[in-house]
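User:
I study polymers; will you set down one protein's sequence and backbone structure tokens?

Assistant:
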Amino acid sequence: MKKLLFGIAISMGIAACSTTPKADELTMIVGTYTFAGSEGIYTYKFDQNSGLVKPLEVIKMDNPSYLTLSANQQVMYVVSEKGDETASVAAFRFNKEDGTAELMNQQLTFGEDPCYVATNGRIVTTANYTGGSMSVFPLRYDGSLEPVDTIFCGNIGGPDMSRQDAPHVHCTAFTPDGKQLLATDFSADRILHWDVEADPAKPHLLMDNTPINTDSGPRHIIFSKDGRFVYIISELSEAVTVCSYYEGKMEVIQTIETHPQADRHAADIHLSPDGKFLYASVRNIEDGLAIFEVNQETGMLKKVGYQSTGKHPRNFNITPNGKYVLVADMNDSKIEIFERNSQTGLLTNTNQDIKLSLPVCIVFAK
């Protein structure tokens, strides 16, 4: 079996900045694909007041396409998106002050191309796109990974025989109330539900799954801060589906397009920290972010704008203070930094791009 390469190196020979934290300074972590010059995970200091960036470290790893942090931000879980039996997830001990990381352990996913990872502090889950499955890993006391315990398989049933001809699971998300785990069953146009309340380490698949419009290809899921609403971006229809959520039950209340010329490649979705605006990225004939105003009472959306970006905005994130939106333009090998108007939700390009080969995931440590 081919071994994955892990290690730590100083990025581009630039000395790491001071480890003394500043009030407005974040540690930014970027996952990449490594088949065109990138070495793995890159960390930076990002001043969320000024938008200034300082490079920190490089953590070497093959195709670390998606990552997440534990609740205390001391452990980083990262998938290695490989299309063969070496596909894996790793746990790193993470120092958010200086952006360094130390490998704790890694486990095989037994599902090809893991493209998403999530944790509730008791288990870690990976969504394995080509493998068409979700892998579940119990956590040890120190946050490291036990071997895979359970694998749940996705389904088919959607009409697109070129994109939905095999199972694909693209995202997993724990509900804010801690009762359920959700996953996007891409090729069956539905959201799968698991009960994690009775035994957090042993998800139990439920029968009350949520169907999405046929030929949608649900991709990513986010919750409103109060947990009352679920927002789903669908890759194929390029639409956002809004669902109410109450006591484990989801009901579709709205479906709204992101772009009038759908090209079947929507990608990511996020809410502003104040919950007033929702953003969804579209890899389209006009790559960009659709911008929606959120009705705080009903959860429903009204489109208020569209911001063009670089090529293939695979992922993006919003700074905790809501001032900046950073977009990973994978095919342009850069991260764009947009300043956000908190009143209108609209974006302005600062033209302070971060050059990086094939960026695909941006995470902030507060």
Confidence is low (pLDDT under 50) at residues 1-19. The first strand starts at residue 7 and ends at 10. The radius of gyration is 19 Å.
